[in-house]
Amino acid sequence: MITVIVPSRASAEPLAGLLAALVPAAVDGLVREVIVADGDADPATAALCEDAGATLLRGSIAAAAAVAKGNWLLILSPDMQFPSRWIEVVADHSARATKPALLLPPLKTGWFAGRRQTASAGLLVRTRDFGGTQGDMKVLRAQFGRGAVRLG
């Protein structure tokens, strides 16, 4: 099962969309818990987490990983746009693989068409491999993204 960690900085509006998109994965039993790591959560973010059943942790991604109950961590930005069939792809990877993975958002159209952008990718990594890693999403993608499987 997966713990979703969302590093959030007072971003209740995009966080609401992300939490809604996670509901089917929770119903399917893939997502065990959602932890919103926000060192300075505003009242709207706190209320949203309470209403959605997400844990609000006033700390870092590393602090959230330290209390995670899932075997895998899926670290997502609040504005993550999920690729189609993401639940099946993530479930398959977490059941069979040990390597970290980047969950890529849908392809963008326009002059970037055909290029996958990792700047907004989610990171899927085993909890035991995460260790005491520090850093923001950019640092984590750089650390675990090399050699990671690309899901999307």
Overall form = globular
CATH architecture: Alpha-Beta Complex
Secondary-structure element pattern, one letter each: EHEHEHEHEEHHE
- Euclidean distance between termini CA atoms: 19 Å
Q: What is the CATH C level class, in words?
A: Alpha Beta
- Could you name the CATH homologous superfamily? Spore Coat Polysaccharide Biosynthesis Protein SpsA, Chain A
The whole-angstrom Rg is 14 Å
**What structural class do the secondary elements suggest?**
alpha/beta
Give the amount of beta strand, in percent. Answer: 15-25%
Number of strands: 7
Description:
By secondary structure, this protein is an alpha/beta fold. The chain has a single domain, classed as Spore Coat Polysaccharide Biosynthesis Protein SpsA, Chain A (Alpha-Beta Complex), CATH 3.90.550.10. 38% of the residues lie in helices and 20% in strands. The protein is built from six helices and seven strands; from the N terminus they run βαβαβαβαββααβ. α1 runs parallel beside α2. The longest helix is centred in the N-terminal third of the chain and has 16 residues. The radius of gyration is 14 Å and the shape is globular. The model has no long low-confidence stretch (mean pLDDT 86).
Please give the structural blueprint.
Elements: E1 2-7, H1 12-27, E2 31-37, H2 43-52, E3 55-57, H3 61-67, E4 72-75, H4 86-96, E5 101-103, E6 122-126, H5 127-130, H6 137-145, E7 149-151
Parallel strand pairs: 1-2, 1-4, 2-3, 5-7
Antiparallel strand pairs: 4-6, 5-6
Helix pairs in contact: 1-2
